[in-house]
Amino acid sequence: MNMTLTLEQLLSTFEKYNLDIWPMQVLAYLLGIAALFFAIKRTQYSGRVVVGILSFLWLWTAIGFFFLYFGPVYSLAYAFGGLFLIQGFLFLADVVKPRFSFGFKADVYSITGVLFIAYAMIGYPVVGYFLGHSYPQSPPFGLTPCPVAVFTFGMFLLTDKKVPKLFLVIPLLWALSGVMPVSVGILEDIGMIISGVIGTGLILYRDRNK
Asked: Which domain does 121 fall in, by range?
C-alpha cells in the first residue's frame, strides 16, 4: 500500500485524469455557473437545483477521481473518497427533502461566498499557472476535491437559512487536510484551507444570530 504523497504523484494523476475525462471539465463549469445563477436568482426549484449540482460534483469526485484515479497511486484516497461519497449522498437526500434555500444579499457572507466561488472556478487555474501547475497538470474545477470544497463553502455562504451542521463536517475536515498537498507543493490549496476556516466561522456566526 502506498501511503506516501508526492508532488509528482499529484501532478501526474491530474494530467492523466484531465486527459481521460475531457470534455467533462466544460460540463463542470456549466454546472458551476448554473448553481451560482440559481443561488442568486431564486425560483421555486432553486434550492433543489443547487444541491443537486453539489451532489453530482461530490459523487463524481468520490468515484471518478478518488476511487478510479487517485486510489491506485495513494491508498488513503479510498478513505477520502468514502467521505466524499457520504457528502454527496447527504446533498442527494436534500434534493428529495430540501432544507437549503439560497439568495444573494449585499452583506459580508454573500460577498465572501462569491469570492470563494470565483477562487474555485478561476483562482485555482490562475494560481496554478503561476506555480507551474498548468493544464493538464492542474485540478479541474468541480471534478477534483479541493475546488469542490471551496465551491461548496461559497454556496453555503449564499444560503438564507441555517446550514445543517452535519453538512459542514466533511468539507471542513477536507479543507483542513489541505496541509498535506500544500506541504508537497500544491500551494493553491492554501486558498482551500482559508475558505474552510473563514467559511465555517462565518457560517456558524451567521446562523447563530438567525
From this structure: 7-208
